[in-house]
Amino acid sequence: MSRRPNIEGALKHVSSRYELVHAAAKRVEQLLKEGDDIFVRDKVKKELIKKTFYAIEELAEGKVQVKKVNLEP
């Protein structure tokens, strides 16, 4: 059985599911700049996982924080 990302844990660090999707997408963009492959190797279990899964896990564990920017003048 495949693992699933800790979405409930990640939702504790953002205000909505929409913000979670946006934050995870931004993090995946950052990870893709580091390497073109869509997979990243888990440092503990040494298995390949998708960068989307990895981004959500980072949010859930608090390794990545969402910075909110006010665009109003």
UniProtKB/TrEMBL annotation:
Enzyme Commission number, as recorded: 2.7.7.6
Keywords: DNA-directed RNA polymerase, Nucleotidyltransferase, Transcription, Transferase
GO biological process terms, semicolon-separated: DNA-templated transcription
Entry-linked InterPro entries: DNA-dir_RNA_pol_omega, Pol_omega/Rpo6/RPB6, RPB6/omega-like_sf
GO terms assigned for molecular function: DNA binding; DNA-directed RNA polymerase activity
Role played: Promotes RNA polymerase assembly. Latches the N- and C-terminal regions of the beta' subunit thereby facilitating its interaction with the beta and alpha subunits.
Family label: Belongs to the RNA polymerase subunit omega family.
PANTHER family: DNA-DIRECTED RNA POLYMERASE SUBUNIT OMEGA (PTHR34476)
NCBIfam families: rpoZ
Protein name per Swiss-Prot or TrEMBL: DNA-directed RNA polymerase subunit omega
Organism expressing this protein natively: Thermocrinis ruber
Gene this chain is encoded by: rpoZ
